[in-house]
Amino acid sequence: MTVAAPTTTAIDWAAVRADFPVLTREVHGKPLVYFDSANTGQKPNAVIEAVDDFYRRHNANVSRAVHTLGTEATEAYEGARAKLARFLNVRGDELVLCSGTTFAINLVAYSWALPRLQPGDAIVLTRMEHHANIVPWQLVAQRTGATIKVAELDELGRLDLARLYSLLTPEVKLLALTHVSNVLGTVNPVREICREARKRGIATLVDGSQAAPHRALDIAAIGCDFYALTGHKMSGPTGTGALWARREHLDAMPPFIGGGEMIKEVRFEGTVFADGPRRFEAGTPNIAGFAGLGAAVDYLSALGMDNIEAREQALLERFTAALGEVPGLRIFGTAPDKAAVVSFLVEGAHAHDLATLLDLEGVAIRSGHHCAHPLMQHFGVPATCRASLAYYNTFEEIDAFVAALNKVRTLLA
Ligand code: PMP
């Protein structure tokens, strides 16, 4: 599939970076180089101030109070839903607000899959899934007698599409896959994959945790049944996220968690549940967090996701070239369509040792299995280092990173 090049405009990236207070920090006496945005993204002032402003001026619960603060709190929360819906090109009444991708996927597992799947049915996953998109399906499989099939990767860390499609046989009820790998950076052609699944009557869930921060998303165009995302990776607060689901699924799904806010009427003889997303939003939500997420969506939209993508691709290109010069360094995942996530190992050095020594140089990267054990098993390694960049990073930081890496590499040799 050919994808049109994004339209970009000139942005003052130094000014953008200045919006992120944490990036001015020193760590162990060195300027912080934060290359762990795939783990969680840093937050601009606009987001921090929105959370602060909510607690200072508007704090109240949503939907219950008729007083002014209650109305303002409801506006902040519902405003975030409306902004996120526009950002994703979906309808607000199809968007369940929740704590993040893990909750969103579990909601689909318990509310959609558990009542539906039977012995003999199958779920297809891919080798590159995060544990959040594996373990819930294993729990469903254990309870329903369904089985799990796994789509494997090629040598560049892409899905082998021919093999994936050959797995989509009549007993498959769901294909759950990530949009962008949190370890390899691979961008999966989810639009094409979802079309193939749909042709075969198979529902699709896309884990968008690592896509939403980096690219303009048009979920309607992807054509999936469910799309999960998490706010803290999109410059928003932790404990925020969303599940988009086709309205026909939301209307057919029983509640997952019961409590206040998700009902129309409660009697001891039985309860009538709310319609649409509210049925899945029991209890007091993370209102301040969603005020912050609304501000994050505004911030990303003002920059333009196409500009963000172009910036991150330029950083990735430079970063990959610079890593290519480091002796003994092996990159895991070299797909042509990649987000700015680079997993690597350096010969003779353990991933955790490298990350610990890099921290002493002010450089923050992640080391470990990245919640992707099956992918580590595929590569036959227990752990990798992962450097993940975002639009607020700089080319100078790449140089500082490579200098620090060369220093610690020689220490470990
Ligand atoms: N899926 C992917 C691909 C991820 O990268 C992550 C976060 N590391 C998750 C799911 C889980 O997201 P959360 O912890 O915000 O629920």
Give the secondary structure arrangement, pairings included:
Layout: H1 13-17, E1 26-27, E2 30-31, E3 33-34, H2 45-58, H3 68-88, E4 95-98, H4 101-113, E5 122-126, H5 135-144, E6 147-151, H6 161-167, E7 172-178, H7 190-199, E8 203-207, H8 219-222, E9 226-230, E10 241-245, H9 247-252, E11 263-267, E12 270-273, H10 287-303, H11 305-324, E13 329-332, E14 341-346, H12 351-360, E15 363-364, E16 366-368, H13 373-379, E17 384-388, H14 395-412
Parallel strand pairs: 3-15, 5-6, 5-7, 7-8, 8-9
Antiparallel strand pairs: 1-2, 4-10, 9-10, 11-12, 13-14, 14-17, 16-17
Helix pairs in contact: 2-10, 3-10, 4-5, 11-14, 12-14
Can you characterise this structure?
The protein has helices at 13-17, 45-58, 68-88, 101-113, 135-144, 161-167, 190-199, 219-222, 247-252, 287-303, 305-324, 351-360, 373-379, 395-412, and strands spanning 26-27, 30-31, 33-34, 95-98, 122-126, 147-151, 172-178, 203-207, 226-230, 241-245, 263-267, 270-273, 329-332, 341-346, 363-364, 366-368, 384-388. With 413 residues, the chain is of the alpha/beta class. Strand 5, helix 5 (135-144) and strand 6 form a beta-alpha-beta unit. Helix 2 (45-58) packs antiparallel against helix 10 and helix 11 runs parallel beside helix 14 (395-412). The chain is globular, with a radius of gyration of 22 Å. It has a seven-stranded mixed β-sheet, sandwiched between helices. Strands 13-14-17-16 form a four-stranded antiparallel β-sheet, covered by helices on one side. Strands 1-2 form a two-stranded antiparallel ribbon. The chain has two domains: 13-40 and 305-412, Aspartate Aminotransferase, domain 1; 48-301, Aspartate Aminotransferase, domain 2 (3-Layer(aba) Sandwich), CATH 3.40.640.10. The chain binds 4'-deoxy-4'-aminopyridoxal-5'-phosphate (PMP). 4'-deoxy-4'-aminopyridoxal-5'-phosphate binds next to helix 4.
